[in-house]
Amino acid sequence: MTEELVRKVRERYAQIAEGQVSGCCGPQTSGCGSESAVTLGVGYDASELALVPAEANLGLGCGAPIGFLSLKAGETALDLGSGPGLDTFLAARQVGPEGRVIGVDMTPAMLERARANAAKIGVSHVEFREGRLEALPVESSSIDAVTSNCVINLVPDKRAVFAEIARVLRPGGRVVISDILLDGRLPAVVEQDLLAYVGCVSGAMRREEYFALVGAAGLEKVEVLRDVDYLATLIESAPDEVGALEARTGVTREQVLGRVHSVTFRAEKPAR
Ligand SMILES: C[S@@+](CC[C@H](N)C(=O)[O-])C[C@H]1O[C@@H](n2cnc3c(N)ncnc32)[C@H](O)[C@@H]1O
């Protein structure tokens, strides 16, 4: 079942990368408004977006984590589930050519798109690697800063992801993640809706369980930096998507409002 879900996620994000369906990290069926509307709605500045190729922005994020990562010139950063590369390229500007940014994604079509974007802007300190978040193709203790935007909710084995983050970070390294978390439970029909899973809603874990996994991996000093009602954001930026979810499941937005949150948080690996 777990591997079947991963396969469905890969299939869906391949279709999005190839432009067969438009995507947002929301309950997708028909498309979700303009990508930049979605991306502005989750916290990016228009001036920031102007710095990266438009093709790197498919409106797939649910936060704007790079602004909180405080990257310095020369650092090595890792973007988990890098998709078309939006956060990877923003990070690359901050670490500069003396630094390095690695994007990891499991969907070949996304990697192809991200590499084409890198070639277009001529950055040589960015690398996109094919791999799974649950078994990162990255050396232990080699990364200063890890980020991820709306991906971990899509991974059935979240425990493995946090263990891998702790493994690849150098002692004293930090992580800033934007992800979808639940407060309370979703109605069963939404929980079982595959489109809501691949759209980053029903794979989300309850907040307390999620942060328990972060702590169990050995990450500390967890600090929530941004916490917004994700459904309210989607109602504004992608109303058709929310309507489609309601029509598909028979569940109204009022029944879900307040339970699905987009949370950006920071944590550290102990310096020892
Ligand atoms: C919602 S998109 C986010 C993309 C990117 N972070 C952004 O904000 O544009 C999720 C991405 O994570 C990738 N992904 C999902 N599960 C993964 C896994 N288990 N391992 C590696 N990549 C994964 C998908 O292929 C997709 O590109």
Write a structural description.
The protein is an alpha/beta fold. The chain has one domain: Rossmann fold, CATH 3.40.50. The protein is 38% helix and 21% strand. The protein has 12 helices and 8 strands. The chain has helices spanning 2-17, 35-41, 46-49, 86-95, 108-121, 158-168, 188-191, 194-198, 207-216, 230-237, 239-249, 253-256, and strands at residues 76-80, 100-105, 126-130, 143-149, 169-182, 205-206, 220-229, 260-268. Strands 1, 2, 3, 4, 5, 6, 7 and 8 form an 8-stranded mixed beta sheet that branches. Helix 4 links the parallel strand 1 (76-80) and strand 2. Helix 10 (230-237) packs across helix 11 (239-249). The longest helix has 16 residues, at 2-17. It is globular. The N and C termini lie far apart (39 Å). The relative contact order is 0.17. S-adenosylmethionine binds at residues 6, 9, 13, 25, 58, 60-61, 81-84, 86-87, 105-107, 110, 132-134, 149-151, 154-155, 200.
